[in-house]
Amino acid sequence: MMKLIDTHVHLGVSKFSGVATTETDIIDAMKKYNVETSLVMPQPTLEDIEEVHRRIARFSAAYPGKIYGMAAIDPWLDEERFDSQAQECFEQHHFVAIKLHPMGHNISPLSPRCDQIYAAARKYKVPVIVHTGIGNPFSLPSLMIEPARRFPDVPIILAHAGFAVYTDEAVVAAKACENIYLEPSWCPTYTIKKMVDHIGAERMMLGSDHISNLPIEILKLQTIGITEQQMEQILYSTPKQLFHIS
């Protein structure tokens, strides 16, 4: 059976949907759908983010090699607090990515405040995952072109790849910048096939966003007519290399 890494998993309670996901929910879904590794981040939430980060760190420690953490640090924090949280997440907890949620953080990716996120990604050699699609104008995929060009050594992953409505724009952004990758959760099948055709499977990865969505995202990839090699690249090889998963 083909190995599978889910690159977009949330722990906690979403302030937008009210969806609550626990450690048990995640592990049960991984067993049911043969997921080898999940990359877990906080929800956009009203919970204490620092405590959610520590909860994810404990989760990762309990399931080494199966659970990896990702940070979601508020770019509105002052430099000292931001750096302190980044240091804890990456030096103590060994998280593998940092999240920017333009809608959840209520900020444009072009704001100078977001440079803290891009600079932290560069410092700790991790990718930036950026929510795109819902929550415009801040969530437009094209807004990541300028940061991607200023930080060409930082991999930037467009979560949801435009979220169905802006998928073409996500493809354009990825074609404009070689360090932009696409995670197409919630996108229609024909647009996912377009992504494979235009930017290649080596710059794509699977993400569920909500664990109940996981079987649907897997099924979409199985039905769009890509090769077994392309499937393996999206499900496993790309994220394994990008997130330095051992």
TrEMBL record:
CDD domains: metallo-dependent_hydrolases. Residues 51-244 form the Amidohydrolase-related domain. InterPro entries: ACMSD, Amidohydro-rel, Metal_Hydrolase. Keywords: Hydrolase, Lyase. GO terms for molecular function: carboxy-lyase activity; hydrolase activity. This is Amidohydrolase 2. It comes from Paenibacillus algicola.
